[in-house]
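Structure, all two chains, one model.
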Amino acid sequence: MSEPAVRISGIVLASLMFQHANSDSDVEGLVLGESRFDEQVTISDSQSDHVHIQETYNVQKHVACHQLNTLYSGSGEVNMEVLQEMLAGGRPSGHDGGLLAPPQDSVIGWYRQRRDSEQQMSFREKVVHDNLRRALANPHMIFMLLTPSRAVLTGSTHRTERFKNIPVLVNNLGLLEQQGYWRGSAPCSATGYIITMKKHRSKFFCSSGSVKEVSEVNSMNESLQVELQKACRCVEESERQLEALQVEVSALRRRLGEKQQPEPVAAVQPEQRNNSALLSAVRDLLGCSPMFLTQTLTLKAFPVPEEYASPETQVKEEQLPLLELSDTTSRKRLRELAVRERKRRRSR
Amino acid sequence: MASRSATVGQASQVGVSPLAINLIGPPFQQGAVTVVPGTRKWWTGAPRKRRSAMAVSSVHLESDAFLVCMNHALSTEKEEVMGLCIGEVEEARIVHIHSVIILRRSDKRKDRVEISPEQLSAASTEAERLADLTGKPMRVVGWYHSHPHITVWPSHVDVRTQAMYQMLDQGFVGLIFSCFIEDKNTRTGRVLYTCFQSAQAQKGSEYERVEIPVHVVPREAIGRVCLESAVELPRILCQEEQDTYRRIHGLAHLDPVTKIHNGSVFTKNLCSQMSAVSGPLLQWLEDRLEHNRRSIADLQREKEALLRELAAL
């Protein structure tokens, strides 16, 4: 699939309009320049190999016919002699006055300017176009049609329309592609341009053809990368040292910790601490109270006298560490309590 | 230029149909017609509004000046460009634009194009120089600017700016060149140009556009002043870029990498100018020189033949 595009500089387009403004009739002529075909391969989700051909026609200059309808006959056949004369600057072949005529290959199309008409090729123009392609053996020829007209009846506003169906790019400073890398360029064959480039070339290009500025910035970047690598190595060494040291220190800490720990001691029951003052007070106050004595009780919560209690349930004094009955008064009270309990049961 | 509210002065409301004027001057080509002034009345085709006699009936823009304007307008599609028109005003209120002066834009905002008083003053000085050069009473008669990717009609800012200039000179006219317009359906590219003045609106204190007929007058030979203006464009572009770079480079505390980057940007922009403007302009000038040399040689031969014929008689 190919997509043609025409590129023209602002001065060439302006000079075309200038030429027509100076003429009271239609104007036609040859378009000279360069055509280029670039193949681009794109990969998408739907297609793995999409070949796209970009046709670019760079219009560099135009050569006007001195008179209308001289480039071709009434039937549309191209007059090659007139074409050669036009390329040679209006002189018959061999009389170029020392000036080099542009080669025939530089003809990439032809143009016509007609006022107040539609943006449409006439039948004759189509025939001429086909014949021109055949005569120059170039199937890729362009036809430029400019149609100036009044946009309003008062004549205050005028419009010039150009081309049709082919996108035209006017090379200018605002083109977005000026921002990125240029994949192609419209060559300038002006003598002064070539002289200037030759004069200053050595300041920008090395003997090998590479751009000096690019080489310098590449060298600088390379030096920066070397510094980066050096710093990286240094840091890596330090990291390894750090790792090893951390391991060593951790091990040493563990060993130290182990050595500083005391001998393991048998489990000691916690020493019972008695509040002796509270204990004697409770003993004196409540020592004989059956509520605070360990007793054997019946199922109905009545105390069982000691003589009736089984040996297993008898309260033994030595099992009363918290309530040490060293006081004889307390023992006496206990006996009295037991006697009273017996009497009560008998009375039932 | 201080702005002040004021009426334009010449635009009172009078009911007339398109004005009839008598042209005074040498014959000139208008399309397929050769206009011989004085032989008939010419209708200006001014809008049917009730106005008194307008200061300007039409504008004649010489084709070489048109070439310079168009080349300037087509030099960039990312911002509006502007310049001043130099010429004279005839008794029939026709403004003749003989040449243009390309101006640098200090304020590159998209919605406004204004000329500083300093630029106007410098242009007036230039016009005096041209008057001495050509022997014609030249002065600044108008201004032009471009509308890339937008309609050719003046914005309300343009109309107001034009009204301000008209306060200084009733005959001051404005031209607008609309470029980089493309009809997406037919892929037809378009270039439009229009001429206008301003007048007080019927209602309110705003101004409105007044259409002025404009004709591109044929001129086979390109004038010296227009050629000088044409080659001034690359120099102005370079100066703008140098000024921008100087301002950036003068900033304090820029590290070396940033300075190198900015240098590359400067190089890139200058290369763009050489590729898009200077190179093609040089090419066109050389082609024009070649064409002129051939024409001179042809005319010389024709002259010798005519002299021989005359001598033979």
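Residues 1-23, 38-53 of chain B have pLDDT under 50 and may be disordered.
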